[in-house]
Amino acid sequence: MTKGRFTPKVSRRTLLKSTAAAGVGILAAPAILRAAGGEIVVGCAGSHTAWMEGIVLPHMKEKFGASILFEGTKSSVNLEKMRSNRDAPYLSVVQMDDPVMILAVEEDLLTPITASAAPNMTELREGATHMDGMWCNYVQPWAGVAYNTDLLDGVPSWTQLWEAAYEGQIIVPSLQNTEGMWTLFAAAHLATGKPLGEAQYEIDAAFDKLAELKPNVLTTYTVMSQAFNLLEQGEIQMLSGNFSSYTLPRKAQGVPVDLAAPKEGIFAMPSGICLVKGGPNTELAEAYLNEMLGAELQGKVAEFASSLPANTTAEVSVTVPEGVPVFGPDWAFVSKNRKEWIERVDKLMSA
Question: What integer is the mean pLDDT of 321-334?
């Protein structure tokens, strides 16, 4: 079962020291021309380690004579780092999910992105720039149900997670992880029969439906890599709410997994990038962010992660599955209620 398994190097911090000459290949915006040299720390999702280390950091090495330090964790941890270091920030750029971005904006932790500092933002699709430039989306994976292909032929419906045949055979994300929201919203839809856009507000019904799922849930996770290992090894059959940027690269490496797009709908994962207010080395941070919004790098990341780029000029072959609804929730509603939901689902699953 382990033959051909793709196991990305999991490191909390990866140091990239550039040997490229300063200024080689750098875009012609004045701030970007001055960005060579120095160092920044970038906070990002730990699940993005493979393409950050394999694609983004080598790309940046070719562009800038600088050091990029990558810290892989999760969005809520990045937010806490910004909070606790508000008076002396050490992060310059953070890549995290939209609902956590909203909290960062409310707490005045971000610096707006401008087209003069990051000209590539003018090439982004409509809706990819949020709250007057407080953050931008760079790629958008889709989320469904990951499953072990040695054990299942597919997952045509979200209802399959609730079938009695799968007792103890499912793992779901904690609501501390953004992907945990997908199982909650799917439960709301199944409980009420309403479209996802309406069902997302029926939270009591969602929790009642989650209670029915509990016998099938082996555990919930906050560290996805550990849960995914159980899926790869056939210790579980389904991993709810997983996303294309994690599952499909594993599949491409020969791991016996795939990502299902259940007929009721799939979910659009928000992947955002922002500038930390008061973060070190502003010009290098802006240059890094501009590259992340550029067509060349987005095309590479989107292909690797089976995601849709935000840059409208990026050339990619990946698409979202056809014939199923693609849903993006009301993130302001999520942010307002998330703490309460986390406590509620933790209590439910531990009872």
Answer: 89
